[in-house]
Predict the structure.
Amino acid sequence: MVINTNVEAQRTASNLMVSQQKLAKSLSRLSSGTKIITASDDAAGLAVSSRLDSQLRRLDSVLNNLGNTMSLTQTQDGYHGNIDNALTRMTELAMMAQDNTKQADDRKLYNEEFQQLLNYVRSTRDKDFNGIPLFDGSYVDITIDAHGGTFPVGGVDLGASVYSSALKEQTWQLTSAAWETSKSGYVLNDPAHRIATGVEAHKLDSDLFYNDALATGSRWSTSNNGGTKLDAGSFVRVDAAGTFSAGSGPVKEAPPTASSTSFNAGDFTTVDLATQGNGGFTGSGTHYTTYAKGSYVSAEPVGNGDLDNQHRTAVSKGYFVTVDPTSEDALAKAYTSGKEVTAQQDLSAFATDEGGVKLSTVDGAKKALTLIMSALDQLHLDRASLGAIQSRIDFTSQQLTTSKQNMSQARSRITDVDIAAETTEFARQQILVQAGTQMLREANNLPRTALELLR
């Protein structure tokens, strides 16, 4: 029996320390839900679970990529559906245009809708999905597994020859210089004249007599007042300081409003202001501006003018004219003779027809029907190919989802704590810690028995 060295207390303290460490680890596992608290708990398991976790996170990214790819192909197919409807409608129009009971004006109406649908289909060729071209025939490599494997998606080319032939725009080769307007306006079907700023002009609606020599009273009369007879339809310019002679000079007094029409600056007329009888209008550029037949004017020529619809044709932006329009449209684009241009406008007066898909004739309608039907056949093949790609994406997504579930389960077996088993272990270690604490107190009391011998 000794006092200085309490071996039993040391052994009990050592056991208590082990129990406390195991209790702490069990508590950490229960609170974290994982069996591997430190690398020393399961070094190999930690390496395997980390690898599985990395692979699972990559699978999540792949599934996200596949979802985006499906959206891309669905966008393509959405356009395809609308193009299919448009091309089908175009075959209907081409078939109706072949009806020999229809007149040229009827075919013109069919062709107008036909060309609008052609323009719609052409416009889809430049569409994209988040900057990725949809219909230029290019392929996009899509990731399909966690190791970077890919497969190509795309290949739909609306610029292919079968589509280009069916969607060909009307092409012309210019035989003279022409300009393409940059804004809407009007083309004059007859020579016309525009009244200049600051000019007071009037058109006589009935025959009138003008006596320039009268000092009092009106110089104008509906009956012969000793002056010069001016016929209905003629123009006069008012200039109090001017000299009137033989009906060619300006008048000093405006004609009666009941027998004339006043013209404002900018108003147009088809009456030739340079001819004898239209008084006081000196050369073009001073009191009026002359426009040749075919000239382009940007502002609508209305107001008090007499340039009615038969003398002008409304044109939209992009119309071709042969008279330089830059005084009215500075941004008009010039083309030299021999250049090829595309336009539905009839340019046969100054260009050679290079062809295009249109329904203006029976033969043209037959040709258009053949071309559109070929394009429809190719479109159906493209849609089938796109559907096959979507099917593969679906199966790939399902496989990846299954792989993700299996890998998650494998990782769980390595890292996830069994709560039932661990709570049992926790209770066991908790009891050992409490018992060890109690026994350490008893072991510390053992040297006291030596005192009994000293009494």
Observations:
- The chain has a mean pLDDT of 88.
- The first strand starts at residue 128 and ends at 129.
